[in-house]
Amino acid sequence: MKKYFQNIAIGALSLIKGLVVTFKNIFCPKITLQYPSERQSMAERFRGLVDLRVNKCIVCSQCVRICPTACLSLSAKLTEEKKKALESFKYNMELCCFCGLCEQVCPVSAVYLNKIYEVASFNRQDLYIDLLNPEKYVKFVNPAVK
Ligand code: SF4
Ligand code: SF4
Questions:
Q1: Is position 83 within any domain?
Q2: Within the chain, how many helices (H) and strands (E) appear?
Q3: Is residue 127 part of a domain?
Q4: CATH number for the domain including 113?
Q5: pLDDT, tens digit, for every residue of 59-116?
Q6: Does some domain include residue 13?
Q7: Number of folded domains in the chain?
Q8: Does 44 fall in a domain?
Q9: Which atom of ligand 1 is nearest to the CA of 97?
Q10: pLDDT by residue (tens digit) across 28-61?
Q11: Rounded CA separation 53/50 (Å)
Q12: Which are the contacts of 51, defined by CB distance < 8 A and separation ≥ 6?
């Protein structure tokens, strides 16, 4: 009989403890987001996908050379003014380890890691990115997000 009332007391105590936590949190500011209509803004140092400011690139290839996983490749052509210009710039996201070395070494801040974090795809080909295409990451940003 004593055990029976002990169990009731323990049960009541744990219920009260749980309710205290609940009531404390009822009045706290909400920290959850209604994803995907709301998105987390990423920290300044967050490293997302490799991206390119095409007009800044001087085609020095330092980013390609330093990449530890060889996921960047570019080709260049000579313009009529005998200057180098980008012909193609490919990024294989499948191999990228998001180390940020390409961003660090670029002398003109042309290559950088953006804030996109929704990088899942059902199609492997989606992970081979043409960095010269301005629409390249549209498919990775959740369409439910405006
Ligand atoms: S973040 Fe690192 S692995 Fe990815 S492309 Fe840049 S250097 Fe290569
Ligand atoms: S390091 Fe910068 S400037 Fe040089 S090729 Fe790469 S993106 Fe272009």
A1: yes
A2: 3, 5
A3: yes
A4: 3.30.70.3270
A5: 999 999 999 999 999 999 999 988 899 999 999 999 999 999 999 999 999 999 999 9
A6: no
A7: 1
A8: no
A9: 3
A10: 888 888 888 888 889 999 999 999 999 999 999 9
A11: 10
A12: 111, 112, 113, 114, 131, 137
At 81, the amino acid letter reads: E
**What sign results for the dihedral spanned by CA atoms 77, 126, 99, 71?**
negative
Cα-to-chain-centroid distance, residue 57: 22
Look up residue 38 and give its DSSP letter.
S
Q: What is the pLDDT of residue 120?
A: 86
The Å distance, Cα 21 to ligand 1 centre, comes to 44
Mutate to test the pocket of ligand 2, among 72, 111, 131 (most ligand atoms within 8 A of CB): 111
What is the maximum span of the chain, computed from C-alpha positions, in angstroms? 98
Which residue, among 93, 105, 123, has the nearest Cα to 57 in the 3D structure?
105
Give the residue numbers spanning the domain of 86. Answer: 50-140
The residue contributing the CA closest to ligand 1 atom 6 is 102
pTM: 0.79
Return the DSSP state at 122.
Answer: S
